[in-house]
Amino acid sequence: MKILVVEDEQKTGDYLRQGLMEASFIVDLARDGLDGLHLALTEAYDLAVLDVKLPGIDGWQVLQGIRRAGKDMPVLFLTARDDVEDRVKGLELGADDYLVKPFAFSELLARVRTLLRRGGKAKESDFLNAADLELDLLRRRVTRSGRKIDLTSKEFSLLELLLRRQGEVLPRSLIASQVWDMNFDSDTNVIEVAIRRLRVKVDDGFEPKLIQTVRGMGYVLEAAE
Predict the structure, then answer these.
(1) 2-117, superfamily in CATH?
(2) Which residues contact 31 (CB under 8 A, 6 or more apart)?
(3) Which of 19, 40, 57, 110 could potentially form a cystine with 33 if both were Cys, beta carbons 3.0 to 4.6 Å apart?
(4) Looking at residue 140, what is its pLDDT?
(5) Collapsed DSSP state (helix, strand, coil) of residue 155
(6) d(CA 209, CA 127)
(7) How far apart are CA 197 and CA 149, in angstroms?
């Protein structure tokens, strides 16, 4: 699942991004309100984490822009402001939850997962599919032909990225930034190793083969012709 974090404090923003990525989420990080609103309106997110006090426009204005655009993704306010009036204002504007700094990451993660589960039965968007492969985003489960496949956190994130953009050739640089949050280093084979291990789990013993290598370009998930 994909989360937008809008946080201008560099240390806090990096901490949130790293923690959420290690919890198998895909994360975009914006450092000011204008960039955050632009991303929220132009990309598809399952949830947003907003600081209130931001450069450009504040978190309340970001939230208003999101709701005016008709987007109903859950929004969690994360802020140092603990006034009751501030909490009430955020909730009245359409926020779904409110967490005050300093916070324990375990609590933030629990609230994020609760917001993502909220709403009763699972929606179609809670699942990603290709052929007989199914990825359950909320329960972080993967099955193929009804058989459960056990993946590591990074393997799950890699497969989610490939499924979200199936049919599109993804260069190694994009995979490195989205899954490992690092610049691509041509001297490392971490991506090749991860793809190889994922193929063993997802493709070995199954047809059609789904994870393809496009020589000199990258990788794509699609059914082989």
Answers:
(1) Response regulator (3.40.50.2300)
(2) 7, 8, 10, 13, 55
(3) 57
(4) 82
(5) helix
(6) 20
(7) 12
Q: Are 24 and 161 in contact (CB under 8 A)?
A: no
CATH classification of 124-221 is 3.40.50.280, yes or no?
no
Read off the pLDDT of residues 143-191 as tens digits, 9 standing for 90 and up: 999 999 999 888 998 998 899 888 999 998 888 877 876 665 656 788 8
> Percent helix, strand, coil in the chain (nearest 5)?
40, 20, 40
d(CA 45, CA 58): 19
Contact 159, 179 (CB under 8 A): no
Q: Are 78 and 51 in contact (CB under 8 A)?
A: yes
Using DSSP's 3-state secondary structure scheme, residue 1 falls into: coil
**Segment 85-125, tens digit of pLDDT:** 666 777 777 788 888 888 888 889 988 988 887 743 444 46
DSSP string, 14-83: HHHHHHHHHTT-EEEEESSHHHHHHHHHHS--SEEEE-SS-SSS-HHHHHHHHHHTT----EEEEES---
Residues, the chain: 225
**pTM of the prediction?**
0.59
All structural domains of the chain with their residue ranges? 2-117, 124-221
